[in-house]
Amino acid sequence: MDISIFLAKFWGWYMITFFVLIMLYPKRIKQLFDFSSDDKFAIIISFMAIIIGLLNIIAHDLWVGDWRIIITLLGWMAFIKGIVIFAFPDINKNWLENIDFKWFQFIVFLLFLMGIFLLNQAYVWVQI
Length: 128
Known about the structure:
Elements: H1 3-24, H2 27-36, H3 39-59, H4 68-87, H5 89-98, H6 101-123
Helix pairs in contact: 1-6, 3-4, 4-5
């Protein structure tokens, strides 16, 4: 299986699963924000983001002009976000304190649409 297809399936299913869980359990949003401001939890999350980002970057660092750039950007964003959370925890805490929950739900919906797009690229449900 092509690595781009594999990662499109991974990221697509991840985004859709996250969206469904947030929609079924909206109170978890507040808990996620509360946990993220805890230093111990932030360190664990930062290492997970760095690992996932690095694996994605090593396997798929394709700077091309098609849908595969999304996968590359997701890897780089995860890697950079992990470094920021670990190295600059105050920036992360300030961001978490200032975000509006309605914007968070909108962002999660955009991630759902991106997940559908990536899964469509992997499974070719509809020709684009």
